[in-house]
Each structure stands twice: as C-alpha cells, then as structure tokens.
Amino acid sequence: MSEASSTRETSMETDQEGREEQDTDRGGQRLVLPEDGHGWKKYGQKFIKKIGKFRSYFKCQKQNCVAKKRVEWSNPDYIRIWYEGSHNHASSTQGTSSSAANQDSLYAQVFGSDQPAASRTHHQDA
DNA sequence: AGCCTTTGACCAGCG
DNA sequence: TCGCTGGTCAAAGGC
C-alpha cells in the first residue's frame, strides 16, 4: 500500500451529528456510524492484522459521487472514520449548497480518548 | 419489492 | 519469484 495520496488524517472530535445506531445483528461486529447526511453503501469489511483493527469500506450511493468512506476500529469506543474523495451533491442535511462540496475531502472523527499520540503515516513494524 | 447488509474470493501492488 | 496485505467486486440473505 502506499501513503502518498489525497488521504490525510485529521483527528478532531466533531460529533455534532452524533447519531448512534446500536446494531446487535449477530456475533458479528457492527459499528455506530455518525450520520454524515449522505447515503453510504458498505462494499466490504476486513480485519487488518497489520494494525489489529477492523476496516470497513463504504462508497457514496450517488452515481456522480465518487466519495468513499473508510472506517477502522478495534473496539466500539474507538472508531476512526476517514473520508476520501468529494461529493457531487450537497448533503441531504446541508441545504447550504456552498461550493465547498469540492473539498479534497478527508476528515477523520475519533471517538473515545485512547488516541495513540501519533498522526503519522502508518509506519510501524511488529 | 426494494434496498441494504454481510461474507468470500479474486486481484493487484509491494516487499 | 513468491508471499502477504489491502482493496474491490459479487452473490446471497434479511428486513
């Protein structure tokens, strides 16, 4: 994998739309994803043993939307959401169609407070 | 009936 | 060259 890209990490606690959805599906691992005002379609989930965390892959449902969403977590208390790409439409809740819908994307939300002091690039080796 | 979710397998890139 | 990881797609099931 590479790191160079339009993917950056920004740790900030922005739970203004904190929406919790408890899912007790089955012995699986569902998460509580905050409502972004967009429709996301989950297209994959894998466990990254490299970091010992689960990673979910979401894609914007809009056809003109190439926005992607990635979520990685090791426990329901520590979730890392990472947005990639930009939307081609204003958010459902964002009537403020500010042309800002062209941001390079990328902003992560960190839940919990067990953040490992480090916003570096994944550079670690067991 | 439609939509979304979940799991597995496959592929590609890099070491 | 092979192996491994990460990422994506596909299909099935469930609500």
UniProtKB/TrEMBL annotation:
Q: Name the PROSITE patterns for this protein.
A: WRKY
Q: Where is the composition biased (Low complexity)?
A: 90-101
Give residue spans, biased composition: Basic and acidic residues.
16-37
Q: Where is this region: Disordered?
A: 1-37, 88-126
The source's domain of life comes to Eukaryota
- Residue ranges of the WRKY domain? 29-92
Q: Which InterPro entries match?
A: WRKY_dom, WRKY_dom_sf, WRKY_plant
Q: Which Pfam families match?
A: WRKY
Q: Name one GO cellular component term.
A: nucleus
Q: Does the keyword Nuclease apply?
A: no
Subcellular location per UniProt equals: Nucleus
Q: Which UniProt keywords apply?
A: DNA-binding, Nucleus, Transcription, Transcription regulation
**Listed GO molecular functions?**
DNA-binding transcription factor activity; sequence-specific DNA binding
Any idea what this protein is called?
WRKY domain-containing protein
What organism is this sequence from? Populus trichocarpa
